[in-house]
Amino acid sequence: TDLSYMYAITRQESMMNPLARSPVGARGLMQFMPDTAAMVSKKYGYPYGGKDELFNPSVNIRLGGAYLHDLQEKFGGNRIFATAGYNAGPGRAYKWQSGDGVRRDAITYIEAIPFNETRNYVQKVLMYNVIYQHLLGAQKLELLTPSEHEAFY
């Protein structure tokens, strides 16, 4: 997973606060849920001693990064789908894809996300990603990759 993308997700999730806690139980930098952390730790053999460990930045980033990587693989490297899936669950990101055979662009997909929170989340993560590309010294800034431009939404 690209470093600027990881920063963008982390910025949107917690404003880079390792002690962030959501009302629904997400914790730490990447606002990771304890049940998802347990699943990812088991899959990859990463140590995980329970929900309070999610306040440890190295544990949170390792588990959150692995989960984000899994989402990107699941969605063929498409950050738009992976980002929507990170916020609202991968099942919803699949469900929101076009099922009528009409080809839509990325912006139309994002604007059609039925949850305001997720729609805003995806927009902000894409924006933060460009900012972090710049801060990390990227030679070329990309809002969308070529494959994301060409994807069927």
- How many domains? The number is 1
Q: N- to C-terminal separation?
A: 22 Å
Instruction: Sketch the topology as an H/E string, one letter per element.
Output: HHHHHHHH
Count of DSSP E strands? Answer: 0
**C-alpha Rg (nearest Å):** 15 Å
Strand content range? under 5%
Tally of helical runs: 8
Percent of residues in helical segments? 55-70%
Could you say what the CATH architecture is? Orthogonal Bundle
CATH class: Mainly Alpha
Per CATH, what is the topology? Lysozyme
Mean pLDDT: 95
Major sheet: none
Shape: globular
Low-pLDDT sequence parts? none
SSE class: mainly alpha
Report on the architecture of this protein.
The protein is mainly alpha-helical and 153 residues long. The protein has one domain (3-150): Lysozyme. Helix content is 58%, strand content 0%. It is built from eight helices and no strands. Helix 2 (34-44) crosses helix 3 (57-74), helix 3 crosses helix 4 (79-88) and helix 4 crosses helix 7. The longest helix is centred in the last third of the chain and has 20 residues, at 116-135. The mean pLDDT is 95.
Features:
153 residues; mainly alpha; Lysozyme; 58% helix
Annotate the secondary structure layout.
Layout lengths: L2 H12 L19 H11 L12 H18 L4 H10 L1 H6 L10 H6 L4 H20 L10 H5 L3
Helix pairs in contact: 1-7, 2-3, 3-4, 4-7
Give a concise summary.
The chain has eight helices and no strands. By secondary structure, it is mainly alpha-helical. The relative contact order is 0.15.
